[in-house]
Amino acid sequence: MRVELTKFRVKEGKSKRVDAWIEYMHENMDDVLMNLEGERMYVESIFREKFNNVEYLYWYSVQEDQMRGTDEVNNQKIDEKHLEFFDECIDKTFRPEDMTAACVMIPSRIRSAMESR
């Protein structure tokens, strides 16, 4: 099981587009969740932070350690929209920061349920 947390900086003036991006995901949650299944992603969360007038997004995920074949069909429209928002809103001059998981706490019954699918 792989647990990740990565920090991205939002381009200046793109907070409203990030709002639209998040809203898009909420409005299309069924398709988003279907994509997560295809990616063997158990949990994915996006956090927002504003610090010194700069906005950051943090991606937190728990996923299968090794990708298997994609037996589920991914929704290409969701992927394309996600990449469109990402390219428009994420500042590529800022190197994403990967945090180190110092301690992963997932009860065995939850871990077993995730891995049994």
TrEMBL record:
One Pfam assignment: DUF6176
InterPro entries (alphabetical): DUF6176
Protein name stated in the entry: NIPSNAP protein
